[in-house]
Amino acid sequence: MEFVLPTFSTAAKIRVAITCVIFICSTCFNVAALWTITHKYRKKSHIRILIINLVTADLFITLIIMPMDAVWNVTVQWYAGDFACRILMFLKLVAMYSSAFVTVVISLDRQAAVLNPLGIGNAKKKNKVMLCVAWVLSFLLAIPQLFIFHTVSRSDPVHFVQCATVGSFREHWQETIYNMFTFFWLFLLPLLIMVSCYTRILLEISHKMKEGCVSSKEFDLRRSSDYIPRVRIRTLRCLCLCIVLTFIVCWTPYYRLDIWYGFLPEMLIQEKVPPSLCHILFLFGLFHTCLDPIIYGLFTIHFRREIRRVCRCTTRKSNTWPSLGTGSFRISTTAVPVRRVAGVPGGSEI
């Protein structure tokens, strides 16, 4: 089969443009979230630690994967050399692992908060241990990238260099096993844990609601200055479904593409799957970093209360602010990330 050199096609140009938009949005949302948590709200809590780690993981994806993908699509071939090829592919997988694993840690923390509300005293210590495990696993599981990826060059019909896995596997089934290994750790296992955790949360709260146990007296056992005493089951159900569905909607198309590469590479090589579809499937995975800073807050009373408070503050201080754009940024900075996991019962208000 004649080798056809890839080009910077129209579909690739659209992919780069959308990636740049996602990059700007994700950077603004996550930096705003990080600044708010670390500066505006100085009181420490185990929830803040979780959110800081999730924002860090999302910024990891934003600042490593997105720029690399955009530049790579523009240049078409790899110009950064073999060392950068190995390191960037390694960091790319670290970023993806860390984002998935920290999301799992948050799910486990919310489950513990509901099923064992009296164990809040040990929550901070347990979360630190789980976060350490999550980050260590992220780096360990990504180590094969350092040996699998390398620069591959060819001179016919023209000199062309690419960062790829060509020649790293003796048989195709070995590459398939590796792809399925990453698929399990990056998508399947986190999804199963999240579904399990949020299903148990819904069942537990529904059970207590039916028995009439959800009252301010019961929750007084775990109340603090940053605790939500009442939970609306309808809002909670929407929140849990939204978290799981967002993970599925954003990452399923991306890993569908990965499965094609693993099991049916000829479909991509022979372009039986349109290249434009491949670009679209890849972009789905990037949207998750934009949704993370806001998804937990949209369904909580506290988030809406913060929006109203800041809007009133904006109205009163409009004469002192230089422009509407500045005021709008302050609203998003204050409100978007502040109530990230507050909607989950037993959670802490950030």
TrEMBL record:
GO terms for molecular function: G protein-coupled receptor activity; peptide binding; protein-hormone receptor activity. It is a multi-pass membrane protein. GO terms for biological process: cellular response to hormone stimulus. PROSITE patterns: G_PROTEIN_RECEP_F1_2. The chain crosses the membrane at residues 12-37, 49-67, 87-108, 129-149, 183-203, 238-257, 277-299. GO terms for cellular component: plasma membrane. It is found in: Cell membrane. Residues 29-296 form the G-protein coupled receptors family 1 profile domain. The keyword Disulfide bond applies. Pfam families: 7tm_1 (PF00001). InterPro entries: GPCR_Rhodpsn, GPCR_Rhodpsn_7TM, GphnRH_fam_rcpt. The keyword Glycoprotein applies. Keywords: Cell membrane, Disulfide bond, G-protein coupled receptor, Glycoprotein, Membrane, Phosphoprotein, Receptor, Transducer, Transmembrane, Transmembrane helix. This is Gonadotropin-releasing hormone receptor. It comes from Hymenochirus boettgeri (Congo dwarf clawed frog).
